[in-house]
Amino acid sequence: MAGRADGVARMSETHTPQSFWRRYVFSTDHKTIGKQYLITSFVMAVFGVSWSILIRLQLAWPDASWPLLGRLLPGLYEGGVLLPEYYLSLVTMHGTIMIFFVISFALLSGFGNFIIPLHIGARDMAYPLLNMLSYWTIVPACLLMLGSFLVEGGAAAGGWTAYPPLSALPEALPGSGLGQTLWLLAMALFIVSFTMGSLNFVTTILNLRTRGMTMLRLPLAIWTLFIASILGILAFPALTAAAIMLLLDRHGGTSFFLPEGLVLGGQLLSNEGGTPLLFQHLFWFLGHPEVYVLVLPAVGIAFDVVATFGRRPPFGYRTSVGSLIVIAVLSMIVWGHHMFTSGMNPYLAEYFSIATVAITIPFAVLGMNLIASLWRAQIRLSTAMLFALAIIAAIGIGGLGGLWLGTATADMYLHDSYFVVGHFHFMIGMVTGFGVFAATYYWFPKMFGRHMNEALGKLHFWLTVAPVFFAFTAMHYLGLGGSLRRLYDPTAYDYALPVQWLNVLVSVALFIAVVGQLIFLFNFFWSLLRGRRATENPWEGATLEWTAASPAPHLNWAELPVVHRGPYEYRVDGAPDGYQLQTAPRAVAAEPRGAAEAPTAPAP
Amino acid sequence: MERNRQTMEIVALIFLFLGITLFTIVGFVAVDWLPVAASGHAAGVDGVIRYLLLTTGAILLIGTLALVAFLWRYGRGRPTGSPQIRQKTARWVSLVPVVGMALIAEAGVMLKGLPVWDEVYGEVPEDALVVELTGKQFEWIVRYRGRDGTFGRIDPALIDDRANPAGLAPEDPSARDDLVYRGRLHLPVGRTVHLRLRARDVLHSFTVPAFRVKQDVVPGIVTGTTFVPTLEGSYEIACAELCGMGHYRMGGTVVVQSEEEYEGWLAEQTGWLE
Amino acid sequence: MAGSAHDVRGIANLGARRPAPYPAGIAAVLVTVGMLFAAFTAALLVRRTGTDWKPVALPPIVWVNTVILLVSSGAVELARAAVRRGDSRRCAGWLAVAGLLGVAFLAGQVVAWRLLALRGVFLPNNPHAAFFYVLSAVHAAHLLGGLAALGWTLRRAARGAHTAAHHAGLTHAAIYWHFVGGVWVFLMIVLSTL
Asked: Is the ipTM of this complex over 0.90?
């Protein structure tokens, strides 16, 4: 045994790739790939957030003209005024980029890659080469997405949902020309890459756990990534099929989604027999699970961070795992709640409504478990902990808002209004964004061997959290007032004029939040070079990654750790520092039963 | 020193979380955001919204109070008892959100929501006034059945934006008296209206916020929505599904008149092809 | 030499509970590929209610192709039987036969497309044919992946790397190959009866 460990240590040293290219660019090391994804997501976020600034300027002051922007972005602005077709491009691309190329990259591909092998005691992913391929597949996808702004007609403008016929007919919208084709190709590459990643995650978690690491000793962050990957594997193929058929409708002359009798620009089109609703079903069969693919890992990260900085195990580990599984199953059969008003059968809509609101049940269990995880805690307020607490607050409002939209009758009024925009920014903007921040502050020492600056981190927290809570809550009010989404000019309808002042406040609040993100980026890159050096286990965490050096070396450990206990043994009797690493061997007689939720009786 | 700073931060966090929740709840309750309710089922929709506001507001408040109480009690470094609990306890406690949420959520959908849903999507009464709306980029073409009480044949090939926006077939006698308008809909108050909704190019969505009505219009199929206007006046139609560059200005007007005024207006109209 | 992908993989597995290739990996691949064809099938079921749905008679050669593909699955099984007896050479031989049959299947599919096109049936003018073209093309893409896997196992078999006790790579390639064959039979049933 020892002999082999030495061998590995030696190999780890001699086999660390030496050339710059193999080490930092075409690396198969899960940690490097995770960092590549994370930094790529930051780059894409700079674009996605910049576009949202232009959108918010337009929504707050639709009559104003911006000569400076006109000079900087001559393609988008004419005489300092944003053109309506480019407004729609910005909305479409902001949504696409933030969902798939920022949150998905950062949370799933970025932190998923980084933490899974370190948490389960593996040297790397199951398929390292596939992992590298997965990263290098998204690089052209990013370039295609960004480059599509430069082609004739501009970037795709049919919404991130790309509903045909609008997205199928270049005559219907300038952005439905070459821009939409590039969008579809980039999405296809993204799906290929994401599928490779999910295959890797699932296989690694199932087959590469170290000795003693049973499924019920996995930290909740890993459970959520596992469930999310399974959902990705099940759901993404539907979008692949839809994208192939949409491409053929655009370029092959087929009529999968195009019915007869279409008249555009005075011309009768020759299509026949297709059904636009088919695309919506396929899209949301992916689209709804995709939401949980993004949200669940953030919830898992919140559980782990709250456990570490609350110095106690999460409340109800097993009920949380059960809830996650129930959520996963339900998420596959409720996609129709995005289509209550789409013209589908109203009785089918009733089923979808009943099934959808059932999802709030396991989510309520998760929410209660998160809050109860603070009961009898010994809270240490690091920046990571602050963001984890903000996740709890955001899930409250976001999740409960989901109940409104899942109730078909209320959705009849709220659908496609700013209520929806506010709701999904709570769930896949705030919850997931806070998840990325909590994870970054928490695992930065393990990634780079240094700490991020806590003072700047807390400034970032306050500048982010207060404004975004205000802004996205206010969007709910806008929606109640009837303000519709994707409107180039929100003052076009008189009935929505009384709530227009909210749009101004929302924009100002979000601009403040953007300043906060600049502080984060500065802190990230500055700490990379100058941050305080980190020890192996700076937060006194109990999970496996804290037994590896900081930064974690190539192949992670000299000898693979062996797991003897659950992931959250904080404040257990007889532990030397008040907590036990998962690798701490059990005294033979002391505790006969070993479960994640230490079944020790409460002190009398 | 360190402990004092953390106490201050905890107080700030408590203010933040309480502030968010109170802002949210007060914001929802104190201001009446909803536009005027001018249809029969609007009260039902608003009732569902009120029900959701009450229940989810209460849950949010309870959750937030628990959160800030724990922050205050366990955030200032004071000693506490053991946090370990039995698995069985966690399972029993989780029954509280399971049962509570199941009752609140499903009761909302089934008892409050579905009856209103059926009002809109249930059987259309025989005597309902049927009007057809066709969405096109970027206006609503309105068609009434005319004196003969039947919609005439239309043919997409005959559509001419100026001369024949609905594409009425002149050789069909029942098409000759069909009334056609652009973006303007007259309805009598108190009578059930069923709108036949069609689209000609891309998806649109017919919505009149005052009626709490929203229904996508889809090329290739005929969708519909049913409501009773209850308040005279004129209301805005909007398009709620992204349909292209001019989506933001694809509006229209519904004029709701008394039965006599409506009949008077109707008597003055002549068919588009007449 | 230092740090080639293969070495990292070898080290990565040291101390792992199971050696590569991993059973969960192949299961996940089958699930995701299966979902893709399920999505297309669902789309076909919806689309065939369209007003313009006219089934076209598929060129009879697709049935010959189907038989070829089934026979190739048989050849893969013979290869597995050979390796279980420890006969690497025969295993490689049967894998080569299976691969060639796979190539023959693809060639036959191309012929089927040409025959349909000669009849004047293209993508745009018949939705049923459009599904045939799309499904057979997507299936062919997945079959190419299977051919790559067979080629890889063939190389290992030829080097004698598969033993009677350790040939999980071959087993997984075989599972995938049978699965892709099964998908084709399913597609043939769907395309010829609906």
From this structure: yes
